[in-house]
Specification:
70% of the residues lie in helices and 0% in strands. It starts with a helix and ends with a helix. With 175 residues, it is an all-alpha fold.
């Protein structure tokens, strides 16, 4: 049985430019969801490598099992607005649409993600666009606003933002 420290030890060390053993940890947690609390605790680690890799593994695990995030909704929304580390921000942006949000929480998430569009990281900005589009998919009240943000990004964004925005616009306008 793994302790919290064990998962964080597996995710620590090495180079910031790599994901280290986050794929291994994601596979472990996917096979044993009882380990999820130990994984998600790493999002608040003092070690930036552990935070980054915990975010990567958490995002991967919750692609197939988004319900694991439900118990951490309040904490994740708080972290979304407080996080400054770019790797943490881009993974949080991808996870937020997987949360069951009430209208107030959805509005807060949209404001925060819109602020992410000013991040210096192109990856954070691109994933914020993805997240906004995901949130607008089921929310007609925000769809028009997000479509306008995406249109603007097709003109003024980085090449990655332009490409993603074009793809997201097609999807939003088709639905």
């Amino acid at each position: 049985m793994f302790r919290m420290k064990d998962i964080q030890t597996i995710l620590s060390g090495g180079d910031r430019r790599t994901i280290g053993r986050s794929d291994q940890v994601a596979a472990m947690v996917s096979n044993d969801p009882k380990l999820f609390p130990r994984l998600i605790a790493g999002l608040w680690s003092a070690d930036p490598l552990v935070r980054m890799r915990s975010a990567d593994a958490t995002e991967k695990v919750t692609r197939k099992n988004p319900g694991l995030l439900r118990s951490y909704k309040k904490e994740l929304l708080g972290l979304l607005s407080e996080a400054t580390q770019q790797e943490l921000r881009w993974h949080l942006a991808l996870m937020v649409p997987r949360l069951p949000l009430n209208p107030k929480e959805r509005a807060l998430a949209i404001i925060t993600l819109t602020n992410y569009l000013d991040d210096r990281s192109s990856i954070v900005r691109t994933f914020a666009l993805q997240s906004l589009a995901d949130l607008a998919q089921d929310d007609p009240d925000t769809r028009a606003e997000v479509i306008e943000i995406l249109r603007k990004s097709t003109r003024t964004g980085t090449p990655a933002m332009k490409a993603r925005s074009r793809k997201l616009l097609l999807s939003l306008q088709r639905d």
